[in-house]
Amino acid sequence: MKIGFIGAGNMAQAMIEGLLTAKVPSSELLIHSAHPNHYEAYAQSKGIQAVASNLTLTQQADVIILAVEPALYETVITEIKPALTEEKILASVLTGISVAQLSTAAAISDLAIVRLMPNVNVKINQGMTAITGNAASQVTGLATVKGIFEKIGSVTELPEQHFSTFVALAGSSPAFIYLFIDSLARAGVKYGLSKAQATEIAAQAVKGSAQMVLEDGRSPFDLIDQVCSPGGTTVAGLLAMEENGFMTSVIKGIDATINKDRA
Fold first, then answer.
1. In this structure, what DSSP letter does residue 134 have?
2. Could you give phi then psi for residue 189, rounded to 5 degrees?
């Protein structure tokens, strides 16, 4: 199965590199973008096929993944429309562009259209991806694309009205978590650790804690209670964070992200 990427930005590269790490043959991956010097050099460095145009890519690929600037989606779909057939699957990772908008632009009733929202952790096969699709995709298209993205992380089917919430909880949240890790590390530096050592300690603690949430079965709040001894150091730290609005700040950040995505 040939997977074609239209666009060669950070997200396209993250998906491609995750698929290569997951042992998807490089011969199955195609790429084209508006900047030849960029995508051709990138394709060569990864051993994937650089294609001369979006139309040629669409003719050759079974699954076409749109990874361009959202404002360009109509232009790109108009360009590739002569090669879109019922045998193709059109998948989009474009923020803010709905399945209905993609369907209107393609104007092919039986074309499987899938909307995806991966996060950058697909690059290391630890991604979180939301997926939905049109009626035509329910036959095989949705399952095919879901199978591709399960190679590079977890996939959850979500109604499209929840995609903005997903953007905040999974798409933008790596940046929030990086900030948290960096804040922990800077506190370590304050008390004499090197930044590199403090960052490693904090990052591993976050990684292990996330894995515990996924595997233990108890809620995060229940797990907090397991760490907090009566009158101990952890509960003192938690209370200090709450006094300074830790949970409120996190929720406000999610609110701002959702509102911006919906704007």
1. -
2. -65, -40
- The CATH number for 171-262, chosen from 1.10.600.10, 1.10.3730.10, 3.10.580.10, 3.90.700.10, is 1.10.3730.10
| Overall pTM > 0.85 | yes
User: Distance of CA 85 to CAs 33, 107, 113, Å?
Assistant: 21, 11, 11
φ, ψ for residue 22, nearest 5 deg: -80, 10
Residue 38: per-residue pLDDT: 87
What stretch of H or E contains 234? helix 233-243
Give per-residue burial for 71-97: e unless 16+ CB within 10 Å, then b.
Answer: ebbeebbeebeebbeeebbbbbbbeeb
Which among 34, 103, 53 is positioned nearest to 74, based on CA atoms? 103
**Could you tell me the residue ranges of all domains in the chain?**
3-163, 171-262
Choice between 82 and 37, residue whose per-residue pLDDT is larger: 82
Tokens representing 222? 């229940």
Question: Phi and psi at residue 35, in whole multiples of 5°?
Answer: -120, 90
